[in-house]
Automatic annotation (TrEMBL):
Stretches with biased composition (Pro residues): 23-33
Phylogenetic classification of the source organism: Bacteria, Pseudomonadati, Nitrospinota/Tectimicrobiota group, Candidatus Tectimicrobiota
Source superkingdom: Bacteria
GO biological process: Gram-negative-bacterium-type cell outer membrane assembly; lipopolysaccharide transport
Full protein name: LPS-assembly protein LptD
Pfam families: LptD
Length: 765
């Protein structure tokens, strides 16, 4: 009964369907190749004109010149134009070019493939008649009929037949009719069809108009239905507009019974293989909160291969009159605190190992951060990557930038400009194979146009606490990178596709020194980013790194090297802190930093493991740990669990306690049923931040999905329904939540209290 109601909705509410797919770059239309003069194909005999595209072959082929006919018996195969007929027997009249074939008929034209008992055709016409026909139109739509007429290319008429997109002798759904017409990439018009479910009639219609689309086509997408305690009943129809071969759009709205109508749209384009973009927008005049909510996002990318350059723009604008996250279904959108607009042109000079960038970045606060602004307009960078100086053993590197800043914070606006230069020279030395040493020396020269009036002013000075006057900072730095000693051992053996195992253990050390220069001027700097916060430094970072490697047998033959795991134990020693003589009565020396235990492992493509622990040796306690594991069983199952925990400290070093557990998993219950579960827990507050269950049934030709979501501020339920080739929406993978877990490398690719699963090593890998 439920399926019959859904079918009625399809027939009356959405007679058109859209095959939702991204646009493609415009390409020249292909042309069918013409046979070359005098061309012959082995096993084929051309009819009349030897340059014609019609040919016939058979186990026994005879030509009756008196009756002007060609007869083929036993696996007869005839090809004419873009069509092909295979049969046990075929007869073609040489004069009229009419033909008939019988016995195990197979007719093919493009993606159409029909079988039958008898076929009548003409070599110079698109018209074909097939008896007892059954097969596929467009590779998707399955039809049967006592009689099928091909009236023109992609145009058919069927008498006493059925229509479905399902497989099997008893399809899940279908239509039975007396007469119908089909236009591939157009519509099917069924006269008086009976709606059948599993072969049982459940309803009758005077007429039905259904889409027969195999490519992107204009039409309605599957609507989404839902209900929630915050937004009320929700109905989300959408219309897909295939504008042309290189662009399309989706227009629709969300009807929220308690809040109003949220209009939304998206436009996509691919102008060429190097240029593509997207424009998204939404608007809601909220009758519940008496405010406006709108978003506008523009994403554009153009590559210039000839000049090794690119232009990338992402415009992000939004307005929230009140703080309300219940309107957002996406986790990342719910937790974000600002918009982020970036526009950048990049030019690479490969021969000079140089990169030039010019652009801007603007971040505006949302919700709790409303009224805040951080902007770089413009930002110009010229970087020279580490490269050899001439034929010498020395390497050069340059980091340089010009930036115009603006920051609005706590109703205080600051504008200034900065120039930063950081050239350096290094000399890699490989004395022995197991030991590498690289000394480096560099200079940091920075200029600002605005400074504090004195060193006692805070980091957000008012107009009265700052002045426009050039401020400069000169610093030099030196470092010594030691990679080694390193030792390795190979263990021969084989475990499944893995052959031989290698263990490498090594010591990695970095000594970095930058003296306390311009200390008085540095106190006048208004800190806006990490360049402004550079301080004198005298540290030694050391690590013991274990790597476990193996050789993996490839399907095409041979082996590839794979890192099974990396386990590192590292710590930083602050020489300046060890020599400190001030404030010893109130704060003891603590030159040793956290002991970091870092594990990254991917023994197979299905398993990923990440772990970090920060141990405070003075308190003899763990201050922070983060663990994550991702198991990927393909279409059958997946599991992702991660946890972040930190200890609360009310004395130096201060930290805020937190404990988050995130879990998402999915399993296929047989071939058709899929279930996913997602939850986020805040253990400090003993609260569940979010729970979500997705239950989906997907057969070969139709599907239904039920989504239940419960967050702190709302509870919702949504239903999606689809019919293959008839009523479809944006196609999703087997498991919806696994996509972002896999792509982003962390739980849902979110932020905030989510455990990071991409850890930056303190030393180069």
């Amino acid at each position: 009964m439920l399926f019959a109601l859904a079918m009625a909705l399809v027939l009356y509410a959405a007679p058109a369907a859209a095959q939702f797919a991204p646009p493609s770059a415009p390409l020249p239309q292909p042309r069918s190749p013409l046979p070359r003069e005098g061309e012959r194909k082995e096993g084929l005999r051309f009819l009349q004109d030897p340059t014609a595209a019609a040919a016939i072959s058979a186990d026994q082929l005879t030509e009756d010149r008196e009756r002007q006919r060609v007869v083929g018996r036993g696996f007869a195969d005839i090809r004419f134009g873009d069509k092909r007929i295979q049969a046990d027997f075929v007869e073609v009249q040489s004069g009229t070019r009419d033909g008939v074939a019988t016995g195990n008929i197979v007719f093919q034209a493009g993606n159409d493939r029909i079988v039958g008992t008898r076929i009548e055709f003409n070599l110079d016409s698109e018209r074909v008649v097939i008896y007892d026909a059954r097969g596929y139109l467009g590779g998707t739509y399955y039809i049967t009929g006592d009689l099928l007429r091909r009236l023109a290319q992609d145009h058919y008429e069927v008498v006493d037949g059925t229509f479905t997109t399902c497989e099997g002798d008893r399809p899940d759904w279908g239509f039975r009719f007396k007469r119908s017409t089909f236009r591939v990439e157009g519509y099917a018009i069924l006269d008086g069809p009976a709606v059948e479910v599993a072969g049982v009639p459940v309803g009758y219609l005077p007429v039905a108009v259904l889409p027969v689309k195999t490519r992107r086509a204009t039409g309605f997408l599957v609507p989404q239905f839902g209900a929630g305690n915050r937004n009320g009943f929700e109905f989300s129809p959408a219309f897909f507009w295939a504008i042309n071969e290189w662009s399309d759009a989706t227009l629709g709205f969300d009807y929220l019974s308690k809040r109003g109508i949220r209009y939304k749209g998206e436009y996509r384009y691919i102008l060429s293989g190097n240029t593509r973009g997207r424009v998204q927008g939404s608007f809601l005049r909220d009758k519940l909160e008496k405010g406006q909510f709108w978003d506008l996002k523009v994403d554009h990318l153009t590559l210039f291969p000839e000049t090794a350059s690119s232009f990338n723009a992402f415009i992000d604008l939004a307005r929230r009159d009140v703080i309300d996250r219940s309107l957002e279904r996406d986790l990342v959108e719910r937790v974000r605190q600002n918009t982020d607009t970036t526009i950048q042109y990049t030019r690479n000079f490969p021969r000079a190992d140089t990169q030039f960038k010019v652009g801007m970045r603007r971040q505006e606060g949302l919700d709790e951060s409303d009224g805040q602004l951080f902007q770089k307009l413009p930002e110009v960078r010229l970087d020279i990557f580490s490269s050899r100086i001439g034929t010498s053993d020395f390497y050069k590197e340059l980091i340089s930038s010009y930036t115009a800043f603006r920051r609005d914070l706590n109703r205080n606006s600051i504008e200034l400009q900065r120039v930063h230069l950081e050239p350096s020279v290094s000399l890699p030395l490989q004395t022995v194979p197991w030991l590498g040493v690289t000394p480096e020396f560099g200079i940091r020269e920075t200029f600002w146009t605005v400074q504090k009036i004195n060193s006692s002013v805070g980091s957000n000075p008012t107009d009265a606490e700052r002045r426009e006057e050039i401020l400069s900072r000169e610093m030099w730095f030196a470092s010594l990178n030691v990679l080694g000693p390193r030792f390795s051992r190979v263990y021969e053996g084989r475990v499944g596709p893995l052959q031989d195992f290698k263990h490498i253990i090594g010591l990695e050390t970095v000594y970095f020194y930058s003296p306390a220069m311009d200390s008085e001027d540095r106190r006048l700097i208004i800190p806006l980013d990490e360049v402004d916060s550079l301080q004198d430094q005298n540290t030694i970072t050391y690590a013991i790194v274990n790597r476990f490697l193996t050789k993996l047998e490839k399907e095409e033959g041979g082996f590839e090297t794979r890192q099974l795991a990396r386990i590192a134990l590292s710590q930083t020693f602050d020489v300046a802190e060890a020599r400190r003589t001030q404030d010893l009565e109130t704060r003891e020396r603590r030159p040793f930093g956290f002991i970091l235990f870092d594990v990254t492992s991917r023994p197979t493509r299905q398993i990923r493991l990440f772990h970090q622990t920060f141990y405070n040796q003075y308190e003899q306690e763990i201050d922070l740990h983060s663990t994550g594991i991702l198991l990927d069983g393909g279409r059958n199952w997946f599991l992702n669990v991660d946890r972040t925990w930190s200890r609360q400290r009310n004395e130096f070093p201060f930290s805020t306690g937190q404990s988050f557990i995130n879990f998402t998993g999915g399993v296929a219950l047989g071939r058709r049923w899929f279930i996913e579960y997602l939850t986020r827990l805040n253990k400090v507050e003993r609260a569940t931040l979010e729970q979500s269950i997705i239950l989906r049934y997907q057969s070969c030709c139709w599907g239904v999905a039920l989504t239940l979501t419960d967050t702190r501020d709302k509870s919702e339920i949504f239903v999606n329904f689809s019919l293959l080739g008839i009523l479809e929406g944006e196609r999703v993978p087997t498991f919806k939540t696994r996509r972002t877990v896999t792509d982003e490398g962390r739980f849902l690719g979110g932020s905030g209290g989510l455990a990071p699963m991409r850890f930056q090593s303190p030393l180069p890998p």
